[in-house]
Recover the amino acids of this structure.
């Protein structure tokens, strides 16, 4: 057997995941701040229209793809595995965020339909 042992570089894997998540967060927050600064998005604490939520979903989805690309490029081995792992972790973190902030935001402001169960 002439296989060479290639150690898994867990530190580089974690660094790649962190870099991808950091890129997504910086891009998302930066875009939100920029759109608020020019008056396209309402100030924090004010309700947004459904169209604005859809727009935010679109650009954040694009940023998530960019983040996955960054993770794959920086991964020490198995880039697709790392990119998919970042997507799964991002999905889990998003679900946790939704659960913890459910019915606490301005989207439930007066004049908007909110489920009261």
């Amino acid at each position: 057997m002439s296989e060479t042992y290639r150690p898994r570089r867990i530190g580089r894997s974690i660094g790649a995941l962190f870099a991808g998540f950091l890129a997504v967060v910086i891009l998302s927050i930066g875009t939100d701040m920029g759109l608020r600064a020019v008056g396209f998005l309402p100030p924090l604490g004010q309700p947004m229209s459904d169209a604005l939520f859809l727009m935010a979903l679109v650009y954040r989805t694009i940023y998530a793809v960019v983040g996955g690309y960054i993770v794959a490029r920086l991964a020490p081995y198995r880039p697709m595995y790392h990119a998919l792992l970042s997507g799964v972790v991002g999905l889990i973190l998003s679900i946790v965020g939704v659960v913890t902030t459910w019915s606490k935001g301005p989207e439930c402001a007066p004049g908007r339909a909110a489920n009261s169960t």
